[in-house]
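Students often ask why inverse folding is considered easier than folding. One informal answer: many sequences map to the same fold, so there is more than one right answer. In these notes we will look at a single instance of the problem. The structure comes first.
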């Protein structure tokens, strides 16, 4: 039996459990060039909120009645694709389901006895690659510069900040609450961290960045963005990775006044990780030894059971996750 989560209606504001419904049917058989996987890990990511809305975007929405989209790590249970066999572990774009059919060329095979399989959805997967692309192509931090990362304890932010540290920058995180700020400094090794829930965010950020800000890795938007923009230096760079604080908004928020960007020659550039697919393998090869020797730190937040995926998505959009958010759907053979 296969269990899937179907989009029942488009959420208004934060997604809710009753925007989705469970469907049970039989496990499909693969067509030529396809495999069927049993889901082990399902990734929950902020971008999924965009797929629930029919607002114009860089990617098409999930249609009502369709299985909700998501990346998974799974084990092949049936294969009609050369080079892929039952028992192989693969990562790739699939859906919120216990079993998925996939075209083999969309999947990457994983070693069963390498890094934990869940890391291929987090530090070694799409979020890690996003941080790597953003810092390599846009942020380009240099020794002695000040780099600020929002959602600093999260899947993307934690890697982005550690990459800036490796480049010799002074790195300040922004995170929600004292526990996350402590983790960002003690575990990830950032030089400072400011709690965005503080009533005096602007003053605390200014005091944490006495030389202004040279690179901002934007994950959040809203009030955090406004506080950072005040402190940007001449020739600073802004990596526009995401604005999760605004994903549930019913109306688009009015934009900031960007006049300062002219005089300060600020470079503000958006990033979509899938634009450079070659970065995924490049990042995996670079980061695997760092994960193995624990010089690249990460934290995972695991929720058990496919049925909890809708609540998990609502949670990540409200900052309830602490680290890369994953749903454990099936037994992990590793
Ligand atoms: N452009 C791309 O290709 C690409 C790819 C992947 C991810 N992204 C973006 O990267 C960002 C981070 O994604 P992630 O997967 O690493 O998620 P994450 O950081 O693990 O989780 C999201 C975090 O956002 C913060 N947040 C949520 N609501 C907030 C609010 N109202 N104000 C301030 N912070 C808030 C929360 O952290 P705190 O509790 O610390 O606030 C929450 O834990 C998202 O914007 C996502 O859309 C973009």
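Output (designed amino acids):
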């Amino acid at each position: 039996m296969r269990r899937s989560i179907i989009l029942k209606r488009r959420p208004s504001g934060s997604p809710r459990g009753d925007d989705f419904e469970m469907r049970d049917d039989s496990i499909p058989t693969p067509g030529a060039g396809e495999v069927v996987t049993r889901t082990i890990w399902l990734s929950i990511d902020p971008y999924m909120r965009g797929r629930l809305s029919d607002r114009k975007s860089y990617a098409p929405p999930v249609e009502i009645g369709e299985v909700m989209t998501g990346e998974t790590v799974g084990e092949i249970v049936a294969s009609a694709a050369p080079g892929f066999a039952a028992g192989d572990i693969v990562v790739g774009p699939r859906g919120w389901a216990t079993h998925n059919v996939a075209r083999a060329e969309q999947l990457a095979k994983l070693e069963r006895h390498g890094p934990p399989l869940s890391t291929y959805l987090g530090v070694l997967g799409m979020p890690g690659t996003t941080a790597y692309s953003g810092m390599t192509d846009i942020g380009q931090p240099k020794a002695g510069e000040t780099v600020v990362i929002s959602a600093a304890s999260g899947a993307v932010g934690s890697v982005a900040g550690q990459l800036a540290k490796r480049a010799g920058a002074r790195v300040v995180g922004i995170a929600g609450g004292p526990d996350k700020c402590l983790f960002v400094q003690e575990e990830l090794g950032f030089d400072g961290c400011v709690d965005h829930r503080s009533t005096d965010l602007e003053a605390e950020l200014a005091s944490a960045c006495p030389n202004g800000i040279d690179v901002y890795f934007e994950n959040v938007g809203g009030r955090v963005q406004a506080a950072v923009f005040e402190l940007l230096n001449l020739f600073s760079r802004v990596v526009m990775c995401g604005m999760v604080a605004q994903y549930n908004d019913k109306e688009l928020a009015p934009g900031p006044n960007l006049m300062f960007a002219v005089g300060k020659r600020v470079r503000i550039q958006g990033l979509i990780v899938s634009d450079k697919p070659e970065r995924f393998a490049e990042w995996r090869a670079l980061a695997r030894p760092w994960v193995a020797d624990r010089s690249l730190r990460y934290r995972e937040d695991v929720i058990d059971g496919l049925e909890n995926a809708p609540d998990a998505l609502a949670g990540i959009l409200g900052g309830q996750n602490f680290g890369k958010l994953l749903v454990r759907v099936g037994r992990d053979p590793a």
